[in-house]
């Protein structure tokens, strides 16, 4: 099939990317530099084309592109949807999508790499430069998938991006694999949520220049997590590392504990110590349900509280006003959803076997139109619910109607129930 180049998109060390017309359909073409267009690259690319994409999150190679009388080749892939922006814009905070979308980005990344690894593949080069995200939905798009190889294969040329590679790869003791991908994913997630690198603390400040020797020491030979509970020799420094200092206490303990594991046990025990994609995915869903909004700041200053942790009083980071102890739904599935306007009830909240799916909500927390302090939940499920009050009386909640959320009330959704609780009533066990 003829493929006509339309215009230049961008270039890198491996080659150049163009927008192209494939019989009326706009696609992207990556064309390799001749030195890299060898038989090994051709073989690896052919395997990927045959396998097909693990999920829609990957801009996957679709077929080869050749040119008469050329000693190089390339491949076509889907063109990136303009709603996706570079991950680097999140690091610069030129885009601020909000806490719930941020958690959705983390979920989407974990879900995408879980689907890749489940096919026996590894990405090899997880970093900012290869990932785009939608600031409105939290969907992600992963590019440069021609670097993907069979797990642990020596075929690929790419070892990774500096500062993201697992310590054993930095030291030259291992090739990229799904285990090293897990480490790189943890580094990426830490950067997304804390806008900082997990190993760049006071020890980094002792190096005048981050040359090869310094980077090998910091990221490979002696990596020490800046919040290691048992080793305070590499704590973040006020000023240069202020993002990490300010943001670390902002997140719930269960979330911070995963990073502590990833950068302590996960450094020395690649087989058993690293946080799995499924664990990150579950944590991101739980984090989505833990968002608090400050009414005094107009609802745009967000914090977190997890109902499995004691309510010790949380103040808004922006205005300093203490939050009113919130209501939350304690569901039979084990989930707990904070009742703040805009929070949504999803199928996985009501049924343990339901897949995580954030496309169709079954309910949404809403404010009373004239009394915003009164909260309710709007039934968007298409099924009739029933509320059971403290006195035992019941009330139907028809589709497209709402019921007021009051402590002690039980809501029967049909497949499961939820009890409305208030933070001050919770007792940590």
Brief account:
By secondary structure, the protein is α+β, with helices and mostly antiparallel strands. The protein has twelve helices and 22 strands.
Plain-language structure description:
There is one protein chain. The protein has 429 residues and is an alpha+beta fold. It folds into three domains: 3-78, Phosphorylase Kinase, domain 1 (2-Layer Sandwich), CATH 3.30.200; 85-282, Transferase(Phosphotransferase), domain 1 (Orthogonal Bundle), CATH 1.10.510; 306-425, Tumour Suppressor Smad4. It has helices at 39-51, 88-91, 99-117, 167-170, 178-194, 202-205, 212-221, 242-247, 253-262, 265-268, 277-288, 347-350; strands at 3-11, 15-22, 25-32, 63-65, 74-78, 85-86, 121-122, 131-133, 140-142, 149-150, 291-293, 302-304, 327-331, 336-338, 344-345, 363-367, 375-379, 385-388, 394-397, 402-404, 410-412, 417-422. The longest helix has 19 residues, at 99-117. It starts with a strand and ends in a 7-residue tail after the last strand. The mean pLDDT is 92.
């Amino acid at each position: 099939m003829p493929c006509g180049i339309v215009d230049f998109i961008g270039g890198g060390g491996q080659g150049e990317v163009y927008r192209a017309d494939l019989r009326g359909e706009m696609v992207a073409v990556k064309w390799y530099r001749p030195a890299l267009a060898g038989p090994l690259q051709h073989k690896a690319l052919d395997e990927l084309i045959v396998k097909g994409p693990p999920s829609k999150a990957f801009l996957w190679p679709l077929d080869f592109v050749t040119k008469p009388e050329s000693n190089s080749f390339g491949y076509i892939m889907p063109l990136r949807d303009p709603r996706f922006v570079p991950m680097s814009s999140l690091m610069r905070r030129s885009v601020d999508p909000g806490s719930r979308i941020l958690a959705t980005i983390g979920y989407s990344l974990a879900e995408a790499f879980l689907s890749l690894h489940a096919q026996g593949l590894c990405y090899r080069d997880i970093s900012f430069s290869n990932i785009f995200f939608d600031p409105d939905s939290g969907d992600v798009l992963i590019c440069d998938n021609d670097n993907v190889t069979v797990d642990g294969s020596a075929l690929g040329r790419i070892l990774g991006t500096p500062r993201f590679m697992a310590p054993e790869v930095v030291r030259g003791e291992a090739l990229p694999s799904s285990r090293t991908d897990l480490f790189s994913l943890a580094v990426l997630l830490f950067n997304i949520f804390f806008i900082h690198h997990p190993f760049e603390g006071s020890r980094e400040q002792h190096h005048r220049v981050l040359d090869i020797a310094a980077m090998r020491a910091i990221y490979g030979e002696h990596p020490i997590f800046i919040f290691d509970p048992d080793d305070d020799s590499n704590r973040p420094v006020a000023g240069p590392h202020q993002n990490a200092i300010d943001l670390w206490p902002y997140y719930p303990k269960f979330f911070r504990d995963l990073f502590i594991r990833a950068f302590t046990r996960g450094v020395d025990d690649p087989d058993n110590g690293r946080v799995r994609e499924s664990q990150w995915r579950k944590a991101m869903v739980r984090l989505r349900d833990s968002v608090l909004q400050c009414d005094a700041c107009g609802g745009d200053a967000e914090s977190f509280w997890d109902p499995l942790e004691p309510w010790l009083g949380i103040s808004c980071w922006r205005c300093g006003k203490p939050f009113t102890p919130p209501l939350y739904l304690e569901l039979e599935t084990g989930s707990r959803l904070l009742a703040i306007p805009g929070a949504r009830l999803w199928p996985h909240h009501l049924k343990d076997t339901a897949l995580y799916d954030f496309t169709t909500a079954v309910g949404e927390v809403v404010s009373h139109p004239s009394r915003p302090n009164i909260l309710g939940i709007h039934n968007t499920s298409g099924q009739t619910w029933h509320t059971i009050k403290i006195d035992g009386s019941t009330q139907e909640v028809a589709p497209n109607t709402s019921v007021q959320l009051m402590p002690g009330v039980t809501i029967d959704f049909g497949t499961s129930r939820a009890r409305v609780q208030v933070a001050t009533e919770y007792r940590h066990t």
